[in-house]
Amino acid sequence: MTHRPPTRFPLLLLLTLTALTGCPKPPPTTPEQTYSDVQFDVTVPPETPVNATLLLSGEDAAFKGPSGQGLELVYQGGNTFTVKARMPKNQPLTYTIRMTAPSEQRALDLVGNAVPARTLEARENEENVSFNVERWGQPSSGIQPRTVFVVAVPATTPPDDDIYLAGGHELLGGWNPAGVKLYKAMNSSYAIELSFTPDASLEYKVTRGSWETVEKTSTGAELPNRLHKTGGGFQRVSLSVGGWADFFTEEPPEPVLTGKIEYLRDVTPTNTVLKKRDVIIWLPPDYDTNTGRHYPVLYMHDGQNLMDATTAPYKAEWNVDETAHELVGAGKVDALIIVGIYNTSDRGPEYTQVPDARYPEVDGANGGRADAYGQFIVNELKPMIDGKYRTKPEAEYTGLAGSSLGGLVTMYLGMKHPDTFTRLGVISPSVFWGNNDIVTKVEALSGKLPLRIWVDIGTKEGSSSQETVEDTRLLRDALKNKGWVLDNDLKYTEVEEGRHNEASWSARFGSVLEYLFPPPAP
């Protein structure tokens, strides 16, 4: 068999294709990133005002921020403020930190000198810069004899009350119980910075403005006067108040409960973000005798404040049981069941629909748990109540009510669950929360919901709290614009001389009941 020599054509074709296509090219290189995302974490001293505005400022445009004045730091809870910004890489950038509100102050060292400008030269794509501010003030030369008092108060302290240092020194009022007023600082504390002469011997106490509300131990025992001797430089004096005199009496008040009252103890939500709590239930006068009757239900927040002064933190109650007993007995209100849901130490987070870090005294940074709290009421507590008592479970017979943050969460949950609640008592609502977020949510409704709503506000609340007539009118107007009709399915009341406390809410609770649960037509 004859073998032919291999043709040269395949080899030539391969060489031709190689020449045409060329050698494989390496992938294009990605240009190096020219900026770095830098997070600044700033730890501030405990006397920093709770409403402080802090800025990082520098000559580079990266430190100008939207306002052109600097990068505003955001409060994160505890003593920490942060801001994240895009910085050019490999350039030395200098910046300072300052407070612009409630007053203009600079970061100082403990001696009183202004902290020099810092320099940042970012090299990585993501960087973190952390530093501490030792104190705030105006720059000065030399050691300054300044004393800062930081006073931690118990959780039972009324949020609207003023806190004072009262002592023998003239700067402490010469034993006037309203000696020198402290401002609200970080972490539910109060603070003041004073200038005494060196080696001054101070004798003082903490009060809420009178000797009847002077500090006590956590068990109500008397405290000796506090003593402090000043030095020649900067000092920080940290105090902790255990209790207040007016919260203790030699004999605790006897519980005064009117009507048939029952309890559910240690009700534990399935959502572990929520704490267990007690629930108090008021039953109408004929509940045991009229066994064929079923009743509408009003759910209320802050349950420990509603019927029993011995469980109320301020020893003042709403008198819900007495008021309901009287009005139901007189035929002015439909016979109903009232369910009081106790709050917990997480009242602020549970009663708010969004975080608001401006209010650390109620843990505002962790706000936004209202949805979880609402799911607990709707899916767990209400079925429990409907199963245990003779209720009318339909939405048309079910109400929700509360005051302050309780008024806020009532409005929010009513909009979220109109298939569960149709009667809302929105009493002294905290409309301000989250920059009037509740008004924004009403304005975002696609239309009117089947809700009968009571909204009120006292004319004297704004002087001692954030709840104001002006903000509440915004809520009223937003509801009107969505189709609610005043004096029909929307009742709006400005209560003359009404204040932000249990006594004021007790005085008008009867009117709330009469509007939300009128007697059935004959």
List the helices and strands and how they pair.
Elements lengths: L8 H13 L13 E9 L9 E5 L13 E2 L1 E4 L2 E9 L4 E9 L3 E4 L9 E3 L5 E7 L2 E3 L8 E7 L11 E4 L12 E2 L1 E2 L4 E6 L6 E7 L7 E2 L9 E4 L4 E7 L2 E2 L15 E8 L9 E7 L13 E4 L19 H10 L7 E5 L5 H4 L19 H19 L9 E7 H12 L6 E7 L3 H11 L8 E7 L10 H13 L8 E6 L6 H15 L6
Parallel strand pairs: 1-9, 11-19, 23-24, 23-25, 25-26, 26-27, 27-28
Antiparallel strand pairs: 1-5, 2-3, 2-6, 4-5, 6-7, 6-8, 7-10, 11-15, 12-13, 12-16, 14-15, 16-18, 17-20, 21-22, 22-24
Helix pairs in contact: 2-8, 5-6, 6-7
Characterise the protein shown here.
By secondary structure, the protein is α+β, with helices and mostly antiparallel strands. Helices cover 19% and strands 29% of the residues. The chain starts with 8 loop residues before the first helix and ends in a 6-residue tail after the last helix. The mean pLDDT is 90.
